[in-house]
Amino acid sequence: MPFPTLDPIPLPAPVWLFKVLHIVTLALHFLTVYLMVGGLTLAALWNFCTRRDANTPLYGASADIARRLPVVMTYLVNLGIPPLLFAQVLYGRALYTSSILIGVYWLSVIFLLTGAYYLLYVAARRAEHGRAFWWLSLLSLVGVAYVGRIYSTNLTLMLRPEVWLDLYRADALGAQLPTDDPTTFPRFFFMMLTSFAVTGAGLLMVAQFSRVEAAGRLFMGRWGGWLAGIGGLLSIGLGFWVYSVQPAIVKTSLANHGFYAWSLPGFLVCAALLSLFGFLSLKLTGWIPAVGAAGAGFLATTMAVIARDGIRDLTLLAKGFDVWQQPVAANWQVVIIFLLLFVAGLGVIGWMVYVFAKVKGIARHA
Ligand code: HEM
């Protein structure tokens, strides 16, 4: 048995409840990761194209995004913490082990994140003064993408107990990042490139509902439509890629599983709808394509999180770790208080997102 022994303290709530909470909060974290990667790419690209003239709608759009990204980062970090806690409760024996094996990289996330965050603020400040900032957004994007790479490596390493001992013998300090797992890079690229489709949906929403000036909204709407349309198709291809590199036993178990079997088809349908609404927005006016794309983007992300959960559970099961077989001693009073606070928290987040989405575009161009 390669997994460390079970924690003697039983779980304070049923496994299914932790799993539901994990899936909901991780879907929200992934949405913000997508918006961050897509937003940084567009801010850098648009600002580079218009770096000599700040009086264009293109500059206005790049500045508008740059100004929103520090807020997106607060959501990204805060929505990452709950799923990390739930994942540690459910899979601690595997996740702690892999985190320690790449410990130097895992801890470096804090510094990379701080650096990337700082660059977001500097870029936003320059945007407010009508100055070029594309290289700052680009540098921040590199930092953010590297954090994503470390996450993908850790979350696939936790599924490979068979390599842990050799990795530890090779470098007990944890200053290593294994590159021999065929599933890591497809997952990493899935996460990074699906950003374009979801950011496209985000742009459609900004174009439809925000108070950014008209020229900027028109521009964002067109980019949003193309990004959601083409990006949706791209993420379908990436989803197939992630599935195709899974071990045969995981593919078979996924196909035969009562719950997880529909997650991949569900993802494909939602990503196709996202693409469809994106292309439709180029032909139709009104709120339907924007809301449709945003809804499909949210559902596609949730489906991807569920499929990913299935891949993890069934891979671990094949290696002797059954996440459902853990002692539980539910403390319902605490659980109910937690759930009430959780729902209230989601309500507050929804309200803040609403206010944030309504923010007027950068004063200079408004
Ligand atoms: C710029 C910052 C970040 C980026 C780009 C990022 C990106 C990612 C990516 C790509 C994954 C999926 C990896 C995979 O399965 O292949 C992931 C998963 C995850 N991230 Fe983030 N992340 C960031 C920051 C954070 C922070 C600060 C936290 C927590 C404090 C966090 C918590 C999580 C959790 C809990 C998971 C999934 C764990 C699980 O498998 O259950 N992330 N993140």
Question: Would you give an account of this structure?
Answer:
This protein is mostly helical. It has one domain. The longest helix has 45 residues, at 57-101. The protein has 11 helices and no strands. Protoporphyrin IX containing FE binds at residues 26, 29, 33, 76-77, 80-81, 83-84, 87, 113, 116, 144, 147-148, 151-152, 155, 187-188, 191, 308.
Features:
disordered C terminus; binds protoporphyrin IX containing FE; globular
Helix content: over 70%
User: What's the tally of helices?
Assistant: 11
**Series of secondary-structure elements, N-terminal to C-terminal:** HHHHHHHHHHH
Rounded to the nearest angstrom, the radius of gyration is: 21 Å
Cα distance spanning the termini: 63 Å
Structurally, the number of domains stands at 1
Q: What is the overall silhouette?
A: globular
User: Could you describe the largest sheet, including whether it forms a barrel?
Assistant: none
Name the structural class. Answer: mainly alpha
Number of strand segments: 0
